[in-house]
Amino acid sequence: MKVPGAVLREGELEKRSDSLFQLWKKKLVVLSTDRLSLFPDGPAAARRGARPKELRFHSILKVDCVERTAKHVYFTIVTRDRKEIDFRCPDESCWNASITMALIDFQNQRAIEDFRSRQELEREREREQAGPPERRLARAP
Questions:
Q1: What distances in angstroms separate CA 16 from CA 13, 37, 126, 130, one per listed residue?
Q2: Could you tell me which residues belong to the region Disordered (predicted)?
Q3: pTM of the model
Q4: CB of 89 within 8 A of CB of 14?
Q5: Which end of the chain has fewer CB atoms surrounding its CB within 10 Å, N or C?
Q6: Who has greater pLDDT, 3 or 6?
Q7: What single DSSP character describes residue 42?
């Protein structure tokens, strides 16, 4: 099982299927610094080298906690194109919090990178507007 980025957490989640009956299917999930990878058919498929479905953080808008029961926490990942993907996990596992914190960290990193890029562009524009530096000839003593 190969997942790009540093692995923050690995375990099992249940994802609601898109089918008519909307059954809950167990998935092996790997949370890394820039994505959530969902392996089909649980842990056995990951060991066989199955290709995961990847939810990259740049395409995720938010994580909504929908409901908490005695046994499960139900939450929804909302993508930038407004697609909603429903999950549930055991109450004590706190997967929703782990995903939310990783997403916030990713978004903060991107904001810092964007800010630094803008600063560098502004410095370049200022240098271009100032023109070439004046050349002065040195005088002999």
A1: 10, 15, 53, 59
A2: 117-141
A3: 0.78
A4: yes
A5: C
A6: 6
A7: S
